[in-house]
Amino acid sequence: MKPVATLITLEEITKLASRSNLRLGKAIAEDGKFEIEKSNPYVNMVKISQKSSQARTVRVESTSKGLRWKCTCNSRKDLFCQHCVALGLHIISNENN
Ligand SMILES: [Zn+2]
């Protein structure tokens, strides 16, 4: 399996997320608080808190079938929500540091 960081790219995030989730996710990446619950090359799970909204736990994982994601803000397994975007951007910025 490929590490999550090689699957998560800005291009991929832009493709997976809706325009509004992309915009909201960027805002969260800038001023949200990220508490890491699990972090290894294949699984990233963080609790994201923001001043004005409920904390959410989001997980992205590299599987044999590619990238998988899950967030407590919804139960749709195909929805790449704003928190997924935020975590993705967070992973990308950590990679570049
Ligand atoms: Zn979410």
Describe this structure in words.
This protein is an alpha+beta fold and 97 residues long. The chain has one domain. Helices cover 39% and strands 33% of the residues. The chain has helices at 4-7, 10-16, 19-31, 82-95, and strands at 33-39, 43-50, 53-63, 66-71. It has a four-stranded antiparallel sheet with strand order 1-2-3-4, covered by helices on one side. α3 crosses α4. The radius of gyration is 12 Å and the shape is globular. Bound molecules: zinc ion. Zinc ion binds at residues 56, 58, 71, 73, 81-83.
Distance between the termini: 24 Å
The best one-word shape is globular
Mean pLDDT: 95
Helices and strands, in N-to-C order?
HHHEEEEH
Q: Which structural category do the helix and sheet elements fall into?
A: alpha+beta
Number of helices: 4
Helix content: 25-40%
- What is the β-strand count? 4
C-alpha Rg (nearest Å) = 12 Å
Strand content: 25-35%
List low-confidence stretches: none
